[in-house]
Amino acid sequence: MPADEGLAGSDVPSGLFQNLEDLKAHVASLTAQVKALTEGHGKETDEDEEWQYPPFILLLDPPQYDDELRLLIEWVEGVLVPGYLAEPSSDARWCHLWFEHPVAVARLHALWLAWQELTDPATCGYTGPSVWHRDHLDPCVRELRASSGPMAGCTKGEHQVDHRMPGTVPSAWRREDA
Prior knowledge:
Shape: elongated
Number of strands: 0
Number of helices: 5
Distance between the termini: 105 Å
Structural class: mainly alpha
Helix content: 40-55%
Oligomer: single chain
């Protein structure tokens, strides 16, 4: 006899029993996954098979740095620029040679690592993209495009990596000839 037939005259909505059955199936599935993971945990693995964290780009030397930068450029130019960055302006700067700005490379690489983790439902569920937008994308883009950010000296037609520091400002209070 199905679970909802025994309580036909009760005030419990019939859809609730379907939700309970779905919940039971989900718990059984999670229990099986946990069991599979814990059983595999005790087995010896080769050191070569150990999972490695993705490397932070500033810690890499060539040729690994060059390979990682190439992958980062593909992501930035293929996903970030067309999907999230509007036309640059004096209030929202962007340099087409962003990869020549070490601070921009560092921030964008960190953003990309977070994107890889948080857009995979298997590792963070379905709220990962929302967390990525709120906690990673928005602050990163704000810092990169700020008037004091790493691309501050770049304009639409001019690229400048080593931004000039302001020189000594002449003062009316100090006389050079005195």
